[in-house]
User: Which sequence fits this backbone?
RNA sequence: CGGGGUAUAGCGCAGCCUGGUAGCGCGUCUGCUUCGGGAGCAGAAGGCCGUAGGUUCGAAUCCUGCUACCCCGACCA
């Protein structure tokens, strides 16, 4: 029986490939590869509740690295953290028409506040039904704008630049670890402004924060763009996105930033008195990234031997594996401790001194877990003042001199590793981003090999919907850069004058 | 919600057709020997065979109901 998420150990599957008997090769079955990589790296475990996942320490540490870096970026751009409640009065969800439409189908609802013991086990106590049911937040716009209504009365109260780190629940039909789960962790920024211009500026600013973060920290090149009407956030005027390409050529929405106009201010009657003394509705933005980013990192960089992590989010950047016999053990371990001490605190290093595993087994384990560099240290190294080093990206083992310069050398290697991942991902994306001049050409290419299609497009929701049904490709975005190329061209699908340059792709 | 499948040890599976003491691999535990690329030997622990009923002297095995999960389709950060 395959467990939820298919995370059962694949160790004893038939037809073991040569490289790693535990991980299905990408070329054979990409989706299974993804699940195998996660299982072998020990990132998550199945939950007894369908569609939820337990994030284990090695997986959670990746999220913590993401969170800590982003949090610093939010603070640096003037934002502060706050926390709003998990439960939202049911009536709040119905205040903004499009918002209701977008989320109603996937909300978990709390109806009772007490259990009652019966012979068959506990049941919700019929006498403890809530006056008004509570919705478990699928996102927090409604409760936040309810509160902002109480906090805002004057232009002097603006802007409000609040972010919150929280969990949200969306009762999805189909789930995949990290990429789509019923409950996930994220941050949601919610800002309130005195003018449309200022709010739009904020929307774009945070999109750029995400772009820079993604490229610098996740080593993942992304395209910034605007969503088409059908892919827009429910309740937004404009939804901006950063889209990343995964190794199978599919797109993954990695972050979104919404210009909400005055929609929520009107729904929750949030007004302020401007400098001229007139009453005006407040302008809003919201923006978020989630634990999906962990999935993005996994899919973008890992290989058939398991997880590959950018050093900046790797829970362990360097693992030291001591090699010894009984009589040399203490000497070798002491030497390893000295090396580790010289790398800390700038570098996240761990000594694997478990005695029940041979060095080779440790090598394979840390490779599966995505540690960028491994140092192998045996008696000969102690003698020579050296350490063998092996990169997770492959290549021969090298020898490092253990002296006061070691920290700088290793840091340089980590930086180069980070850059190499980015370069590799960018090259792959460039190679698989193609321009086609007809819908037939798009379909033909999709059947052989997924890619991103940059095409001139005459905006039309019906045509967009047909294409989605017909070949599963959707408009990922209208890229911010290069829109002028649409001028004077005709739509690749309808032949009408193009209104946008669009990127079509299959997406998660 | 429609179609197809599965349910036996922590995990992966065999046993079921042809009813008769529940097995294998991995993992786990103990001990000894190992240790520069996935260790070897010896011993051990661990299962109401998803659940409720039926047939039978006897059910993991045959029959019926239920439940859960997986895959394929309709929704989505």
Assistant:
């Amino acid at each position: 029986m395959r467990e939820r998420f298919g995370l059962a150990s694949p160790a004893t599957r038939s037809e073991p490939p040569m490289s790693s008997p535990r991980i299905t090769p990408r070329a054979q079955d990409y989706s299974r590869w993804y699940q195998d990589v996660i299982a072998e790296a020990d990132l998550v475990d199945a939950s007894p509740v369908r569609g939820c996942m337990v994030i284990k320490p090695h997986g959670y540490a990746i999220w913590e690295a993401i969170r800590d870096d982003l949090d610093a970026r939010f603070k640096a751009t003037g934002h502060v953290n706050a926390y709003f409640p998990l439960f939202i009065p049911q009536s709040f969800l119905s205040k903004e028409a499009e918002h209701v439409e977008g989320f109603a189908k996937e909300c978990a609802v709390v109806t009772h506040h007490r259990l009652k013991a019966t012979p068959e086990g506990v049941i919700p106590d019929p006498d403890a039904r809530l006056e008004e049911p509570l919705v478990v937040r699928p996102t927090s716009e409604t409760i936040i704008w309810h509160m902002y209504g109480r906090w805002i009365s004057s232009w002097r109260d603006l802007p409000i630049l609040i972010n919150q780190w929280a969990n949200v629940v969306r009762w999805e039909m189909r789930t995949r670890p990290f990429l789509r789960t019923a409950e996930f962790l994220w941050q949601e920024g919610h800002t309130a402004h005195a003018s449309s211009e200022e709010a739009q500026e904020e929307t774009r600013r945070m999109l750029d924060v995400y772009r820079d973060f993604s490229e610098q920290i996740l080593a993942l090149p992304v395209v910034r763009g605007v969503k088409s009407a059908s892919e827009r956030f429910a309740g937004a005027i404009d939804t901006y996105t950063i889209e990343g390409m995964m190794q199978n050529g599919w797109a993954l929405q990695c972050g979104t930033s919404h210009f909400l106009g005055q929609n929520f201010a009107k729904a929750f009657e949030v007004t302020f008195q401007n400098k001229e003394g007139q009453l005006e509705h407040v302008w809003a933005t919201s923006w978020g990234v989630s634990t999906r980013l962990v999935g993005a990192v996994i899919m973008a960089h890992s290989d058939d031997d398991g997880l590959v992590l950018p050093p900046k989010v790797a829970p362990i950047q360097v693992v030291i594996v001591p090699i010894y016999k009984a009589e040399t053990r203490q000497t070798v371990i002491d030497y390893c401790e000295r090396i580790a001490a010289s790398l800390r605190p700038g570098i996240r290093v761990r000594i694997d001194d478990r005695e029940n595993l041979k060095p080779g087994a440790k090598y394979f384990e840390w490779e599966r877990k995505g540690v960028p560099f491994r140092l192998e240290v045996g008696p000969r190294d102690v003698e020579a003042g050296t350490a063998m080093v092996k990169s997770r990206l492959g290549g021969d083992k090298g020898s490092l001199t253990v002296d006061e310069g070691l920290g700088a050398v290793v840091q340089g290697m980590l930086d180069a590793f980070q850059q190499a991942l980015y370069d590799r991902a960018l090259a792959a994306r460039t190679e698989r981003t193609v321009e086609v001049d007809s819908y037939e050409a798009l379909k033909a290419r999709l059947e052989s090999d997924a890619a991103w299609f940059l095409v001139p497009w005459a905006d039309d929701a019906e045509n967009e919907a047909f294409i989605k049904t017909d070949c599963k490709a959707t408009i990922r975005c209208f890229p911010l850069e290069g829109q002028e190329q649409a001028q004077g061209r005709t739509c690749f699908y309808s032949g009408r004058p193009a209104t946008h340059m669009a990127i079509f792709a299959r997406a998660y």
